[in-house]
Design goal:
Family: Belongs to the ABC transporter superfamily. Lipid exporter (TC 3.A.1.106) family.
Pfam family, one: ABC_tran
Number of strands: 12
Subcellular location: Cell membrane
Mean pLDDT: 78
GO cellular component, one term: plasma membrane
Low-confidence stretches: 1-15
Structural class: alpha/beta
Helix content: 55-70%
Protein name: Fatty acid ABC transporter ATP-binding/permease protein
């Protein structure tokens, strides 16, 4: 029985705002704050070294240009005399330019000085590369450790979520959040943090150098910054909804694929492949459109900023040339400034390019945070009753429960099961049979009333302790990829080989396992491939046997077992049920004729109870169910 209700994070759910989600994502780096501090220091050092490079190269250019001009001047005169000669001839522009240069008439290029400057620049760039490599290595460690903690937290959260969360959430969407969205967050952090830190500090460093060289040119360079910020903000604002849709539709596509894969046989049997394919195509087209719009719109940021940078470059080159001609700047300073202006626009462009990655990463982070923020099942009591559940007396006292507040499923139900009793629960679909067992296992919490085991309220017992004493065999078998022996041992990891074999013999697994290629070491997959449906059920029953529970729950456990195997299992469970309480939920009434008590439920109420013979004599609800299965069938 599955409750209805809205799916957390389903289409139509509004995403959190970008800013708070980004801050929350960044705060997850807090445990790595020392390493992050080292990374920032390395980034700053590398940026400073790289920023000094163009300035020193400008000095080298001045040395070459000064030597070239000095070689053309007559030897034996001073620079002042050469400048005065130019003024006397009426060429004041050249005189101003020569006056600002460091030339010695008649002396050519000092190649040794140029070589020393170039060697210093090379050393700076090599050191900057080493620091950059080291910060990249540390950042890789920080990001991977952070994402590992995030995965661990999501995994632990899934175990703390109530069963109702999974009943109302598409399995494929949950899997997509845990896998695809976490991976996307990892990639976004990897590709953006280092680049953003480097770009931001580079902008600061370059601004300092540009104002150092020429405040006028620096102001001209800054004119494009407001325009770049406005363009980036407007484009990012329009791309954000499409990134949210992209990862939402990714979850829907995964859910569609997962459903089609697990139900492949049924889909093929009913010839519904075309309809399933059509539904997949619709969801895939939504994903395609959302992804295209997100990438296309966010992709406009980089060319827009590059255009603004090129316009800015033209103005800097024009004004810089005039400043050199008037002697207010040297040629090397203009060369260095032009390099800085190109480098200044580059980190702004990179920041814009990172915006789409951050939008995508934050959209995925929001989907993960929705899982982490989902209401958890009520915590176990701090002071727990450690009395072991060893007799198995179960009492339901005025139990009421509903998946929705205004839709009760069970109302004021009372029932007592003594140790060693076999309690069969029957009734039409939706009567509340499986819900009753879910309440006993504390998969759901009661609305009112209480359930006690051996006179101990189950809410005073930890869930782990409670469930460790209850063996459960469901209609839907679950096996993991591993050997048959490992699947049986899942009921008690500490069991010896002899105990595993004993449980296998009791469940009649031993009868068919020797016909398999590797016996108990035969590997089966998650879907139980290699064994039949009945054999899978026998393995799960052997698993329950091995757990040696005080209470046994069989929820249609023999529904997929053939008649002969069913008879064998009934004999085996009879021995297992000795001095243990057993709850048997059954639609096949032939499996519960020998039950100590048969409870008939309708609409969450016990309408009658008694033995098989007595209930038939009463000609009530059980009598009608029995005739529906046997008398009318005959």
């Amino acid at each position: 029985m599955r409750p209805g209700g809205p799916v957390p994070g389903a289409p139509g759910t509004k995403a959190k705002s970008f800013g708070p989600s980004l801050k929350r994502l960044v705060r997850r780096l807090a445990p790595e704050k020392f390493a992050v501090g080292v990374i920032i220091a390395l980034v700053i050092t590398a940026v400073v070294l790289n920023t000094l490079g163009p300035y020193l190269l400008g000095k080298a250019t001045n040395l070459v240009f000064d030597g070239f001009i000095g070689k053309q001047l007559p030897a034996g005169i001073t620079k002042e005399q050469a400048v005065q000669a130019l003024r006397d001839s009426g060429d004041n522009t050249k005189a101003d330019m020569l006056g600002a240069m460091n030339v010695v008439p008649g002396v050519g290029v000092d190649f040794s000085a140029v070589g020393r400057v170039l060697a210093i620049v090379l050393a700076l760039y090599v050191a900057a590369s080493l620091f950059g490599w080291l910060q990249g290595y540390l950042l890789n460690l920080v990001i991977n450790r952070t994402v590992k903690r995030l995965r661990d937290e999501v995994e632990q959260k899934l175990h703390r979520l109530p069963l109702s969360y999974f009943d109302t959430s598409p399995r494929g969407d949950v899997l997509s959040r845990v896998t695809n969205d976490v991976d996307n967050v990892s990639q976004s952090l990897q590709q953006t943090i280092s680049q953003l830190l480097t770009s931001l500090f580079t902008v600061v460093g370059i601004l300092i150098m540009m104002f150092w060289i020429s405040p006028l040119l620096a102001v001209i360079a800054l004119l494009t910054v407001p325009a770049a910020i406005i363009v980036t903000a407007q484009i990012a604002k329009r791309s954000k909804p499409h990134f949210i849709d992209q990862w939402r539709y990714t979850g829907e596509v995964n859910a569609s694929v997962e459903e089609a894969y697990t139900g492949h046989e049924i889909i093929s049997a009913f010839g519904r492949a075309r309809e399933v394919g059509k539904e997949f195509d619709e969801r895939n087209n939504k994903l395609y459109n959302a992804s295209f719009k997100a990438q296309f719109i966010s992709g406009l940021i980089m060319p827009s900023i590059m255009f603004l940078g090129n316009v800015n470059f033209v103005f800097i080159a024009l004004v810089g040339g005039l400043r050199v001609a008037t002697g207010n700047l040297s040629l090397g300073d203009v060369q260095a400034f032009i390099q800085y202006s190109r480098q200044f626009s580059q980190p702004l462009t990179q920041i814009g390019a990172m915006a789409n990655l951050m939008q995508s990463g934050v959209a995925s982070a929001e989907r993960i945070f929705e899982i982490l923020d989902a209401p958890e099942q009520s915590p176990d009591p701090k002071e727990q009753v450690v009395q072991p559940v060893d007799r198995g007396r179960v009492e339901f006292d005025a139990v009421s429960f509903g998946y929705e507040p205004d839709q009760p499923i069970i109302e004021r139900l009372s029932l007592t099961a003594d140790p060693g009793n076999v309690i069969a629960i029957v009734g039409p679909t939706g009567a509340g049979k499986t819900t009753l067992v879910n309440l006993l296992m504390r998969f759901y919490e009661l609305d009112s009333g209480s359930i006690s085991i051996d006179d101990v309220d189950i809410t005073t017992i930890s869930r782990d302790h409670l469930r460790s004493r209850i063996g459960m065999v469901l209609q839907d078998t679950w096996l993991f990829k591993g050997t048959i022996k490992e699947n049986i041992a899942y009921g008690n990891p500490e069991a010896s080989d002899e105990e595993i074999l004993e449980a296998a013999r009791a469940a009649y697994v031993d009868r068919f396992v020797h016909a398999l290629p590797n016996g108990y070491d035969t590997v089966i997959d998650e879907e139980g491939g290699g064994v039949s449906a009945g054999e899978k059920q026998l393995i799960t029953i052997a698993r329950a046997f091995l757990a040696k529970p005080s209470i046994l729950v069989l929820d249609e456990a023999t529904s997929s077992v053939d008649t002969r195997t069913e008879s064998l299992v009934q004999h085996a469970t009879a021995a297992l049920r000795q001095d243990r309480t057993s709850f048997v939920i059954a639609h096949r009434l032939s499996t519960i004729r020998d039950a100590d008590l048969i409870v008939v439920m309708e609409k969450g109420q016990i309408v009658e109870f008694g033995t098989h013979t007595r209930l038939l004599e009463d000609r009530g609800a059980y009598y009608r169910l029995y005739n529906a299965q046997f008398a009318e069938a005959v």
